[in-house]
Amino acid sequence: MKKSFWGFKLLIASTILCTGCSSSKLPVSVRTDETGALKDNNSEKNDDETSDLLATDTSKSMNDETLKLYTKVLNDEEKILFSDGEEVFASNWLGCEDNSYNYVFMDVNGDEVDELILKYLGKMLIVTDNKGTANEVYIGCTYDMPISKGNVHGVFYCRPGGAPTHYNYVLSLMDKDFNVKSPQYGSWYDGNENGEMDDEDMFFIDQEEKEVSKQDFVDKSKNLLDLQNYSPEWKINCSKFFSELEGKYNYTDCKLDNKNGVLEIKKSDEIYGGYEINDYIDGDTSNYRFLAMASYCTGVDQDKAFVKYPKEVYSDDTTLYSYYIVEKKKDGINVYYSEISFGEAGLIYSAK
User: Fold this and answer.
1) Residue 145 dihedral angles phi and psi, to the nearest 5°
2) Distance CA 75, CA 292 (A)
3) pTM for the complete prediction?
4) What is the pLDDT of residues 273-308, one digit of tens each?
5) Residue 212 is inside which H or E element, if any?
């Protein structure tokens, strides 16, 4: 992924935060890629060997123009072009009026460029950048999950059911043109309802639902079983929440250090999430409490946004977080903070 000026600021932030740190682990940087994209260090792609789902992860990438396009989609500033020729804003198609749907950037077709995946209630949508146009390439349902893990790129369908408890699986691998390649099917019916696979259960493979033994199912369906509990690190689209708070707010006597400062929320097409949330001590842009992105937001509850801020990342991938809550008020913004959890967060200042 290209390093932007924003990423450079965050790298400096991590260096300042870690000055004087006595830990033997070396801090490397604050993450600039909080997109939920999975990693893949296995550079040799082999379509016939998709069973190795435990490959070490590495971030996929996109260029600056693609990021800007996806940000406009998230902000409802760019319509999505569907295969039937219809153009629709994401929030309208998903039926999400407050725009607080889930999204993730992920490479679902193995070309090492991220797509934008949107999900809300029973709908999932995969969008790609087609020469500057946001094109729909896949429409899914609540049971679909985008996959980018090891050599496996595509969509995984897992639907639980009852009477008896059972799981229906479909793994659809995608080529670089988003065509589905030989989907893999499987089903497991827990005949004795004990929650474990045994010889009393029923197992099926292939689209024709061929019944097989437990061992044959385990041998031929390793991909499906490995992915059963998989879920990407979905982000919450908080663009509408922060768009209503754009501007600069002054605060005095922060309870952390008794200092004054400026909280600035501003739109940016250069970062994930589309908005910066910056706290400058004494209004000095070189002296800050945090530099955050809207993509750090883990949820919105009425007038509160919950921001999980990665203040330090170490060379062994250990991450230290701070927890901020940004609360809308009629006369400004309240900011809450904790080093432990959102539930422990206390008010540190009111900015107006």
Assistant:
1) -130, 130
2) 18
3) 0.72
4) 789 999 999 999 999 999 999 889 988 888 999 999
5) strand 210-212
